Amino acid sequence: MKRSSKEALKGEGGREINKASVASITSSAKSAEQNLERLYKTIRNSAKNERGKKLRLEKASAKRERQKLRLKLREKLGEEKIPKEKPRTIESTREFDITVIEDDDQEVQHDEANDEMSTYFNDEIPPKILITTSPYAKVNTFKFCYELQKCIPNADIFTRKGIPLKKVVKQAKSKEYTDLIVVHEDRKIPNGIVLCHLPDGPTAFFKINSLTFTKNLKKKGESTVHYPEIVLNNFNTRLGHTIARMFACLFPQKPMYSGRRVVTFHNQRDYIFFRHHRYEFKREGEKAALLELGPRFTLRLKWLQKGTFDTRYGEYEWVLKRHEMESSRRRFFL
């Protein structure tokens, strides 16, 4: 016989069971099961962590023992027979690149002696730099231009307004400027630099990252009018040499050592770090301290073009295609 709904909801003692109480019982059972699962997981993870700790401790102790043995052998036999181990880094495991330049590469020396920048390196023309901005630039972009003018001697700032860049290049050529720097902005913040060597190029575009103005540095000094020393570090390929030579063309060849100013372009994993320092000697005369003068920023090369700026008909020597060219972390282009 079929039971009525009221009879079905009665328990053994004849008491009626509410639907809410049934739901609460089932939910409590589910929560208990979930708590048990979490407990089992924590037990497993704790066991894994303990095993991992043991392995790490064993590796560290084995490494210390190897170091002690090498020190003893080095003391007995000398450092020449047992040299120090080189650390394994991304730079040291860099992929092979045909364009990496050797010191005595005659072909590269011949090309550089006859390229567009040879007049500067032959000391025929002193550098004269024109700095301008994208059309109708905002305050931060002009601040960055003045910071660059502080670093680069013989640099003039030109308020561009709405003049096309090709006309700016022609005007710069007519006034015998040797290089043109155009600072681009996005959302009122500088985000790119076009560097054009005049009169025949080449032209490069860099993305700006991690820009810090001088006033935001913790310990900073005042820049002077002395010509700075230039440090171009770790530009090893043909492309890297071209970029380094473009940076070198911005500064006079004969630095004033009395000012103790240093401008550094350090390439690491295709990111170019710009720093501006003044070094100060300690009383002993053996050590030196660095005082940052600012600004501080990082550049990333996006493309290199032959000749002066021409996006329509210009010939691109190199373009960064991220998804195709950055397939490996150990592949670098500069």
Automatic annotation (TrEMBL):
Sequence ranges assigned to domain Brix in this UniProt record: 127-310
SMART domains assigned to the protein according to its UniProt record, in alphabetical order: Brix (SM00879)
Protein name: Brix domain-containing protein
One cellular component term from this protein's GO annotations in UniProt: nucleolus
Spans annotated as Disordered: 1-63
GO terms of biological process kind: maturation of 5.8S rRNA; maturation of LSU-rRNA
PANTHER family: RIBOSOME PRODUCTION FACTOR 1, U3 SMALL NUCLEOLAR RIBONUCLEOPROTEIN PROTEIN IMP4
Compositional bias (Polar residues): 21-34
Top-level taxon of the source organism: Eukaryota
Short name of any one Pfam family annotated for the protein: Brix
InterPro entries (UniProt xref): Brix, IMP4/RPF1
Ranges of Basic and acidic residues composition bias in the record: 1-18, 47-63
Molecular functions per Gene Ontology: rRNA primary transcript binding
